[in-house]
Design a protein that fits this description.
This protein is about 30% helix and about 20% strand. With about 425 residues, the chain is of the alpha/beta class. The strands form six sheets. A five-stranded parallel beta sheet has the order 4-3-5-6-7, sandwiched between helices. Strands 8-9-10-15-14 form a five-stranded antiparallel beta sheet, with helices on one face. It has a four-stranded antiparallel beta sheet with strand order 11-12-13-16. The longest helix is centred in the N-terminal third of the chain and has 22 residues. The structure holds zinc ion (ZN).
Length: about 425
């Protein structure tokens, strides 16, 4: 058991602060981008004594990574082992690199994440996510499972039949999966007479999509899975840029920060930390990364943090689920909300099988939100208005569109999967 996370809060913070200062020194010495940034801003790193000094370091954004990608490399290129790209959910994918030390760090990250879920060396884990295609996550899981000493089944993404065949054949106890794929597996099981609750699977490490609301309860997706399949779901939160994964412990009260691997700030629009429970943007400084150190990197992810004690005994900070992307925030009749909030409400209307949330700007730069629904479901419009009024205190416009037309709008060119939010606001007003 790694005792570090069970120390007292102030002890954890003191150790983390030392690692943060080390990381600053490392970036200043080896990263061309940060050498330049610190010089330009005349920052004396020796003068960084506390958080308010640290706050003077400018935020690094996705744009910096896109324009100066090569400038972030802090080792000789021959030292690089793994070459990956970011997911490119927003913007274009960026190249990312890992050396031996970074790969070991990733293994350690997942090892501690798995321990948090109650996994042991006796478990067999089926990885139903991609291990190749330049993704970091699948390989990180593999390395972490090796460190734990657990059994591994590498089925990869998709192919419900292969998944169920492997479950029957190798009797894995955990899955690592994208939550919406679990619905596909359930559907396949129902069609093929597989009794899901009689299989060896007891829990799933979920990746890529939120399964909980901010209050910790399972969201529509999470409930749909567990009502059909009686398994324990664990949330995780990660990205290539962070090179770090956050995982839920068995108390399911937010994902735990691994304090020796990452330093997090949750900031308001003025760059000041928000209080626990408030929504802010997550800004990260991954610790102990060597190939591409990032200092104060703005993730664009909006979320909350918890400061109450977790009964698992780990005293590290915990983060809530991502409630939206900063870029997609809607300023709507005096309140601000995220497309994801509207989506969560709409997903609870059973008869509504197709919709698109559209944002435009009026002449004064205010956001206008319109929900597009298929012509053949126009009877749902009143219910929909009422529901959104009750759950979000806003009444967006509702517009009916021919089903075929709506399907086309949901799959724009270059989109990897159908979209639920169409941002047509003038760029100036987006922030
Ligand atoms: Zn915990």
């Amino acid at each position: 058991m790694h005792s570090e996370y069970f120390l007292k809060k102030h002890e954890i913070e003191a150790k983390q602060w030392d690692l943060l200062l080390d990381q600053l020194q490392y970036a200043a010495s080896y990263s061309p981008f940060y050498k330049d940034l610190f010089e330009k801003n005349q920052l004396d790193l020796k003068a960084v004594k506390d958080y308010s000094d640290f706050q003077k370091i400018p935020i690094t954004g996705k744009k910096d990574l896109e324009t100066d990608n090569g400038q972030f490399l802090a080792v000789l290129s021959k030292e690089v082992i793994d070459h990956v790209t970011t997911s490119g959910t927003i913007g274009k994918p960026v190249s990312f690199f890992l050396n031996e030390a970074d790969l070991q760090r990733l293994a350690q990250n997942e090892y501690h994440s798995f321990l948090m879920t109650g996994m042991t060396a006796d478990d067999v884990v089926q990885i139903t996510t991609t291990l190749d295609r330049r993704f970091m996550a699948g390989m990180a899981y593999f390395l972490g499972l090796r460190q734990l000493g657990a059994g591994i089944v590498r089925t990869g993404a998709g192919l419900p039949q292969l998944q169920w065949d492997s479950i029957e054949r190798f009797q894995p106890t955990y899955l690592i999966a994208v939550p919406s794929f679990l619905l596909k597996m359930i559907e396949f099981a129902e069609q093929n007479g597989i009794a899901v609750n009689q299989t060896s699977i007891k829990a799933v490490i979920c990746i890529g999509e939120p399964i909980r609301y901010k209050n910790g309860e399972l969201n529509a997706l999470g409930s749909r899975i567990t009502s059909a399949w009686n398994i324990e779901l664990f949330s995780t939160y990660a990205s290539t840029e962070m090179s770090t994964a956050f995982t839920e412990c068995q108390q399911h009260r937010g994902v735990h920060e691994l304090s020796d691997l990452i330093f997090t700030e949750i900031l308001d629009d003025d760059g000041n930390p928000v209080a626990a429970g408030q929504i802010g943007e997550l800004v990260v400084t991954p610790l102990r990364t060597r190939t591409m150190p990032l200092i104060r990197y703005a993730t664009g992810d909006m979320l909350t943090w918890h400061d109450d004690i977790c009964t698992c005994g780990r005293n590290t900070k915990r983060l809530g689920p991502v409630v939206g992307r900063k870029q997609q925030r809607l300023k709507f009749k005096g309140t601000s909300l995220f497309p994801q909030h509207i989506q969560e409400s709409l997903n609870s209307i059973e008869n509504l099988d197709l919709y698109l949330i559209e944002a435009t700007s009026d002449e004064f730069g205010n956001d206008i939100v319109t929900i597009l629904i298929p012509e053949d479901q126009k009877n749902e419009a009143d219910d929909l208005k009422e529901l959104l009024q009750a759950s979000l205190y806003v009444t967006p416009n509702i517009q009916t569109v021919e089903r075929k037309e709506l399907e086309k709008l949901k799959s724009p060119k270059n989109a990897r999967k159908p979209i639920s939010f169409l941002d047509r606001r003038s760029a100036f007003h987006k922030r």
